[in-house]
Specification:
Mean pLDDT is 82; it is low at 1-29. Strand 2 and strand 3 form a beta hairpin. Helix content is 9%, strand content 45%. The strands form three sheets. Strands 1, 2, 3, 6, 7, 12, 13, 15, 17, 18 and 19 form an eleven-stranded mixed β-sheet that branches. Strands 5-4-8-9 form a four-stranded antiparallel β-sheet, with no helix packed on it. The protein has a four-stranded antiparallel β-sheet with strand order 10-11-16-14, with no helix packed on it. The protein starts with a helix and ends in a 5-residue tail after the last strand. The chain has helices at residues 2-19, 290-302; strands at 33-41, 46-54, 59-60, 66-71, 74-78, 80-81, 89-93, 101-108, 113-120, 126-138, 146-157, 165-181, 187-198, 201-202, 234-235, 243-250, 271-288, 324-339, 343-346.
């Protein structure tokens, strides 16, 4: 018994002594590292990347940055600093299609530093049906008040024989025309062709969109660890090789061109007589690869106020930048267009 106690006491003293010494921290590499981050789509022709140049202690603006875009081995564009963007944003113009091999090369310090990304543009899914309805619902699991929404139920036909990953988006395309009288009482008009992205909210009761985790109300949330699917990324795990339907919401007034891009006449003291518009709703389901899906899932968790690092596994952001850090993803969209009713406002009612 005495021998056992002595061994136990020795172990405790050894542990206490070990706690008195600090564990030294050594940086493995103080060299500067290039980073690239961006989420690209086949629906866009102008793309933006966020780039930086960092050491172990700080993030710096890149000296002499150059960005090159290759499609299937051919140089198609060179990036430039984004107009009106942050000091780390660069833009380039390119049109990607399903099956293309995209390669982005970032250099700095006259080519002494370089990093690159190579990704294959995924194949699109198919939208087979879209239903719209005006509904009253909560905005999400943790909201109390009911609001009026436009609900879109989108049916997706999954690509057979492979694991697939998706997310939805919405926009309106419209031609907006203003008719007016100038100071000489002459009848004139101005038109604008535009497209506007429409914010979407996922239905927290949707089984596929939430990948099987559905809560009736916030009373089901006991520990405060459920993370709403803000980015609306979902897999085909619940409808492989078949069709699945997801439900998303938006506010009806966001579909109106009157909410965006006002037109103004050139002449001073003009008088608007009427506005008219022709508009279409563009419903998209974007296909992405597994790394892109995991990236959105990680961002979804990190951005959530309900994320508790103390009781949830650590979040890891995937990186696909060779020679640097960061993530650049590209998605391919299936599109369904719906003609909406033309709108008209007359006799200065808009003002």
């Amino acid at each position: 018994m005495k021998k056992t106690f002595i061994l136990y006491l020795s172990s405790v003293l050894l542990c206490l002594c070990g706690c008195e010494n600090e564990i030294p921290f050594e940086r493995l590499n103080d060299d500067a590292t290039l980073s690239m981050t961006g989420l690209l789509s086949t629906t866009d022709s102008l793309h933006k990347l966020y780039v930086s140049y960092s050491t172990a202690e700080e993030v710096l603006e890149i000296p002499d940055p150059r960005l090159f875009c290759y499609i299937n081995g051919q140089l198609v564009a060179e990036g430039s600093k984004a107009t009106g963007g942050s000091s780390y944003a660069m833009e380039f113009k390119a049109q990607f299609h399903a099956g293309d091999t995209m390669r982005l090369v970032l250099t700095a310090l006259g080519g002494k530093l370089s990093a690159e990304v190579e990704e294959v543009v995924p194949q699109p899914a198919e939208i087979t049906h879209v239903e719209m309805a005006n509904v009253t619902s909560k905005k999400g699991l943790f909201y109390i008040n009911l609001e009026n929404f436009l609900q879109l139920r989108i049916t997706v036909k999954d690509r057979p024989g492979e694991a697939n990953y998706y997310f939805p988006s919405l926009s309106t395309r419209y031609t907006k025309t203003m008719h007016y009288q100038n100071s000489l009482q002459e009848e004139k008009w101005k038109s604008l062709d535009a497209e506007q992205t429409i914010p979407l909210y996922g239905d927290y009761n949707d089984f596929i969109l939430n990948e099987g985790i559905v809560q009736v109300d916030n009373g089901d949330e006991i520990f405060g660890t459920i993370v709403p699917n803000t980015y609306m990324a979902f897999s085909d795990a619940l409808f492989p090789n078949s069709e699945g339907t997801i439900s998303v919401f938006t506010y009806p007034y966001w579909l109106s061109p009157w909410y965006y891009s006002d037109l103004y006449p050139d002449e001073y003291s003009s008088h608007m007589t009427r506005y008219s518009t022709n508009r279409r709703l563009c419903v998209r389901i974007h296909s992405m690869d597994e790394r892109y899906y995991r990236y959105l899932k990680a961002l979804n968790t990190l951005d959530s106020d309900n994320y508790e690092p103390a009781i949830v596994d650590p979040i890891t952001l995937p990186s696909n930048v060779h020679g640097g850090v960061g993530f650049v993803g590209i998605s391919c969209a299936a599109i369904a267009e719906i003609e909406l009713e033309d709108e008209m406002i007359e006799d200065d009612m808009y003002y």
